[in-house]
Amino acid sequence: MAKWKLYWVESDGYEDCFVVAKNSRSAKCVEVNMNGFNMSDVTAMRVMDIPDTFEEKADKKFRDWSKEHAPHQANRPDLHQWPWYADKWLLEDLGAQFRVIDDEEQTLLRDVVYAKKTNGQWYTYSVGARALSERNELLPQYDNYENEPRINIADQLHGAIGLSLTQCHEIEYLFSKSFIFAVSEKQQKKYETINDFFKGWEKKTLGGLFSAIQEAFDIDTDIKIAMDLFLEMRNKLVHGITTTQRYDIHTDWGQRELLVFLDVFLSLCILIKDIAASCFEVSIEYGSTFLLNENDEKVPVKSSEELLGLFISCFKLKSSTVV
Hints:
Layout: E1 4-10, E2 17-21, H1 24-35, E3 43-50, H2 53-69, E4 84-85, H3 88-93, E5 97-101, E6 104-109, E7 112-116, E8 122-126, H4 128-135, H5 154-176, H6 194-202, H7 206-216, E9 217-219, H8 221-238, H9 252-291, H10 305-314, E10 315-317
Antiparallel strand pairs: 1-2, 1-3, 2-4, 5-6, 6-7, 7-8, 9-10
């Protein structure tokens, strides 16, 4: 068992830091003694064990520093670096990565990002496999931090991108065919047949479709938030998210951030696709009932009470809407 461990010590949110110690109490004591916090105000979370070979390296660096800055202690035989704050060289040797995004300093270590805001406040969030296991309790816990080699997530990531784009296409298709939303006074033109409604409605962009929907219907608040979030994430996905610094697909860190983004997006797609399907079905029912002549061939769609109920619960006709 390793003698020393790396801890993330949190206090007031501004003095949070990495500390090397033998146990959590010792780690908290470093921060308490240096910055005057009470023990009850400080928490220490174990990040990982530190290989024993690093202790000698740390002591040598500390002795070299002492020769220049504190010569009175440089030759002491009992001079040791730890317990103390973790130096950057140690974090790098332990596998940490560093970057700055929007003037925010970030450190990635074992799929946890330790980020410092521009006002000096720290916060953390998970990415990669750790985030997936936290969001999906049924997935096996990721056990690859202690066991090498690390898993290459590129194949899974590419698959998730393909699935996400497919969901985008299917959802946009359903909304673009859901001409029931074209019945508002502002949207309605000279529609005489189902094809007329289709052609006029499906020319809109997804953002245009969502805006038009809000003109014709009052939308349940939670559903509107979900639709707005879907549109925002969809636009990021299709307009080059993989080339941004945070989600750069050519970097290990970017891949881990992107995998979490796609996991959230695919989860959101489940709800949005059901909503889109309900809109499409109601549109076909409306068209078959009111827009076709008696002898016209009706569109074969198997009606679903569940989807109809979903549409009714999500969308309410505005009083100014003409049907």
